[in-house]
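lol so apparently i was supposed to do this last week
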Amino acid sequence: MNATVTQAGMTIDADFYDFVDQELLDGLSISSDSFWQGLASIVTKLSPKNHALLEKRDELQAQIDSYHVQNPNWNAEKYRTFLESIGYLLPEPQDFEITTEVSEPEIAHVAAPQLVVPVNNARFALNAANARWGSLYDALYGTDLISEEDGAEKGSKYNPVRGFKVMAYGRQLLDKILPLSTGSHIESTHYGIVNGVLIVTLNDSRQVQLASSTQLLGYQGPQHNPRVILFKHHGLHFEICIDHDDPIGKVDKAGIKDIILESALTTIMDCEDSVTAVDAEDKVLVYRNWLGLNKGSLKEQFLKGDQQVTRCLNGDREYISLTGEPIILSGRAMMFVRNVGHLMTTPAVFDADGNEVYEGILDAVVTSTAALHDLQGNSPYKNSKTASINIVKPKMHGPEEVAFTAELFDQVENMLGLPKNTIKMGIMDEERRTSVNLKACIEAAKARVVFINTGFLDRTGDEIHTSMLAGPVKPKEDIKTQPWISAYERQNVEVGLASGFKGRAQIGKGMWPKPDEMANMMNAKGAQLEAGANTAWVPSPTAATLHSIHYHEIDVQALQNTLLDHQSHCLDALLMPPLLQDDMPLSPSEIQAELDNNIQGILGYVVRWIDQGIGCSKVPDIFHVGLMEDRATLRISSQHIANWLEHQICTQEQVLATFVKMASVVDSQNSYDPNYVPMCTDGHPNSNSLAYQAAISLVLEGKQQPNGYTEPLLHYYRRLKKQTH
Ligand SMILES: CC(=O)SCCNC(=O)CCNC(=O)[C@H](O)C(C)(C)COP(=O)(O)OP(=O)(O)OC[C@H]1O[C@@H](n2cnc3c(N)ncnc32)[C@H](O)[C@@H]1OP(=O)(O)O
Ligand SMILES: O=CC(=O)O
Ligand SMILES: [Mg+2]
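anyway here it is w/ magnesium ion bound
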């Protein structure tokens, strides 16, 4: 047990206490006493409500389970009536519009990518905050969007053939997003500004202008030979960077060395599914990084190759306007923070009765207090332009839980002396009870909501768990193509638009979970915007830069206008679980392939989580595609096998044998890592591997886990692991 401090009737981990006293409150006019009193009073008031909400989740799940046992031949109509009778499916509220008074310009006015990052990783978190601007040339050169055919391999040193393909792509993009009055950027040999007008000289010495002169905003350097020229399209800025002495610029006819695209306008600093935070020590790390981002002081030094790098927040970008005034644009993404959900408790603080406090309550208090530094100008940078704190709240089940979060935010505002509705809410639409009652959920936070987002990964896990006893589910890939998911995605957009989100709040779509497959991403991810979203999640800054191209290709605001009156009334489809059809049984090899794939993913993720405290990993699937795995993807895989065991699609022996087989595969995939501890020796699992045990428990005890969540078991085993260190 760590040293503790007693304050306001609570028992507080001494390191966490010191962090609050010496770092979090430093520079704020909040005394230590009033902070701890404030926290204690919120804990006392809201913990019983939090507890009751969790009990309600379990009660509803138990009722749904017994319904399926008693009604093996249910139909849609009867099922819907049953869900209404137990209060799972609630009456839809009258039409209303959200009343959120201010939201950030990056949220309300410009459609753009949203990057997510584990905030406990300072190197990545700083990179994410700085990912507002990204090099198109780097993003193209480093990814499979540029093919390696015809001598264009990436190789270990610069390949001019590949470089040429990158430049050609860049020129073609300019033709799309910055069309000339005549001719093409492919022919350009010089860019200059004359009397406030962009003059582009072409191969044949013709001088042409932009098709739309208002796209030109400003420049750096001399007007006739600018170093940087700033443009705007669909609300997104971009730069053409020119340097005839640069290794790239000097082989370009016009000296273009790069095209810089405004990319991740918003970033979510994640305290939740991409991090491991099981105790006070971990929570301090999470909170300290978020604080450092708000104070502008976070720095990270690391070796990259043989280079020592010091990373900190980027400053703003400055240009000269066409009338000679300065233009200053933010150099950083607008940062949201994602708190944890309502489920877990943390040993950082124990309440007066000796219980761990709810982690979601602590997150709301501490992350808001940290953000006060931004609101009060204690940082050289500005995050919120509207004096708001933007918190994403995940894994809420239904409107009561949203109302509870709103009440928590109210209490935090009172504690910190903030005007009501300073704390804005992003609602993850990622639990089935939220999807089917989405309108009521939004109404429960209508004065502070700034986004809804289809977290389809958690949502898939919840889909499987909720209908655990309804029957066996389809293989994972097929679940993605069933009517429930398109109904879910469509309904989310329709409800968001009908509630007045356009021009005020984000309608977001889910993560691209294949971080190395950028060519596929470029083919697929535009569809999320075609479906009406004005932002969508990406796993890396490179993905943000490439995905930003979709926002140039699609005029999201115009598209949303065309969808404003859509109402597809898809509740029945939304309630139809993705079950295997009796007349389409799976072959033994299909079953084994599914188990292999799921178990490889589970082990590959869990072994790093438990042994090394890494909460988000790129794990190869059986086809060697590196997949982003986090707690939500783990929820899906573990629930999927639990469901197949329940319905005897496979046996426990088969599952355990697959675990043995795949543990060796995962060990070999990690053999490059000096910190990796193998789970097997000579093909036999090591009896002392806590990671291996955790992975098996997640499956064998999956049916009993609350809503199929993985946190309880992950935290249990990680804490054990930390004790053995
Ligand atoms: C269901 C959900 O909740 S989804 C939301 C949770 N998921 C996430 O947040 C995903 C975040 N992404 C990641 O954590 C990572 O991209 C991973 C784990 C998927 C892959 O990580 P890696 O294998 O280390 O990536 P890779 O080696 O390709 O690239 C590393 C480089 O990219 C950068 N990078 C990768 N992801 C990110 C990110 N999300 N934000 C900022 N920088 C990033 C790193 O800083 C590093 O660059 P550096 O050397 O200059 O610091
Ligand atoms: O949080 C995102 C998800 O898909 O789950
Ligand atoms: Mg989620």
